[in-house]
Amino acid sequence: MNISKLRQKLFTPLLLLLAAPSLAQTADPTAPILEQIEQNNRRLQAAREVEKAEVLEAKGENNLSNPEVNYAHLFNSDRTSQQQSELTVVQGFDFPTAYVVRGKANRLIADAAKCGYMVERRNILLEAKLLCLDLIGLNREAALLHILQTHADSLAHLCEARLQAGDATALEVNRAKLDLMALHTELADNAAAHRAALQKLMAMNGNLHIEQMVAGDYPTVPLLPDYETLRDELIPLDKELQQADASTQVAKKQVAVSKQGWLPHLQVGYRRNTAPTEEFNGFVVGGSIPLFANKGKVKAARARALSAELVKEEMEMTVEATLQALYNEARQVQEAMSAYDLPLMQHSFALLNQALHGGELSWHEYFVEMESLVRRGQSYLKLENRYHKVMAEIYANKL
Question: pTM for the complete prediction?
Answer without folding.
Answer: 0.84
